[in-house]
Design goal:
Number of strands: 11
Structural class: alpha/beta
Oligomer: single chain
Helix content: 25-40%
Radius of gyration: 20 Å
Strand order of the largest sheet: 8-7-6-9-10-11
Mean pLDDT: 87
Strand content: 15-25%
Distance between the termini: 55 Å
Low-confidence stretches: 1-6, 180-192
Number of helices: 9
Order of helices and strands: HEHEEHEHEHHEHEEHEHEE
């Protein structure tokens, strides 16, 4: 292909943002759109040079992604000012003021942009948002399952544990609590609602046990010891709390995908730990979306329960 023909190909550029779970949503949506349009894929990672609040790092380099370009430019401003400039550029894109490209800027987490499914793009399109909805990329599931595999071979400890998970009715149970912690120790969410409590996990385990007999529970999340209170008597459980440090979330994600079944929380990492499992008989139990500050629509086929 000549350079001139190469330049005429459509291009999908996506701003990759947030923690690992959100980064995966950004990639999956952009990759699915690029497949539908036979377009080149470009990942814009400038967000991470200025994430002053959480200091997250780009983690998609740990996966076997499809060929793509990586856009990473030098930061000239102090981080706080650079983040403001990043937001200004988003505002310009929203109003169509970025020359040479069409921008689709997410209007809100609960707004679904169905134009990403029906249209066939020409030129360059910029995706700016979190894109937390399976409908954006459900048609590319087989391709994504092959690309969103951790590229680095797990160490002996993780490999051995993964084999044990696959050989039994293992269950990954995940919690997310720290974003909602109050001074009195309770957990808070948007609109005054309490976050997922122990009763949710007990109810989820009851629903799961009605279909299969869980052999071993593996407890994940930002406070996995807290989940021990939900473990039924006589059921083995392992608290997975040793994957701290840089890249620990990638190792946690890989282990969750090795489990046969999943109980997810209001966490994008938890969501992907369930979605990336390839077992045809996998049971995933998830909270029915309500008014939590952090929630993602559940994938098709997951069993929702009230909490």
């Amino acid at each position: 292909m000549s350079s001139r023909e190469h330049s005429r190909r459509p291009r999908v550029v996506v701003k990759v943002v947030g923690g690992l779970g959100n980064q995966l949503f950004c990639y999956a949506t952009a990759r699915a759109l690029a497949l539908r349009c036979e377009a080149e894929l470009e990942l814009d990672v400038d967000f991470f040079r200025s994430d002053v609040r959480y200091e997250r790092e780009y983690r998609l380099d740990r996966f076997d992604l499809a060929p793509h370009r990586l856009r990473s430019t030098r930061r000239w401003l102090p981080r706080a000012l650079d983040l403001r400039w990043w937001r200004v550029k988003r505002l310009l894109a929203r109003h169509g003021l970025v020359p040479g490209q069409r921008a689709v800027v997410e209007e809100g987490a609960k707004h679904f942009h169905d134009e990403l499914l029906g249209m066939r793009w020409t030129g360059t399109v910029l995706l700016d948002g979190y894109w937390q909805d399976e409908r954006y990329f459900r048609d590319a599931r087989a391709q994504l399952l092959s690309e969103l595999r951790v590229a680095r071979e797990p160490d002996e400890r993780h490999r051995s544990l993964g084999q044990a998970m696959q050989a039994s009715h293992s269950v990954a149970v995940h919690c997310r609590r720290h974003h909602h912690r109050l001074a009195d120790g309770s957990v808070h969410a948007a609109n005054g609602r309490t976050g997922l409590d122990v009763q949710y996990y007990r109810r989820a385990l009851e629903q799961l046990s009605a279909r299969v007999r869980p052999d071993h529970l593996y407890l994940f999340g930002d406070e996995p010891q807290w989940l021990s209170a939900a473990v039924p008597e006589g059921v083995q459980a392992t608290v997975v709390d040793w994957n701290g440090g840089p890249g620990g979330e990638v190792r946690d994600l890989w282990l969750m995908t090795q489990c046969r079944h999943c109980i997810v929380s209001n966490s994008t990492l938890s969501w992907w730990g369930a979605w990336l499992g390839s077992e045809a008989d996998r049971i995933v139990i998830a909270p029915r979306p309500q008014d939590l500050e952090y929630w993602v629509p559940n994938a098709r086929g997951w069993q929702e329960i009230d909490w």
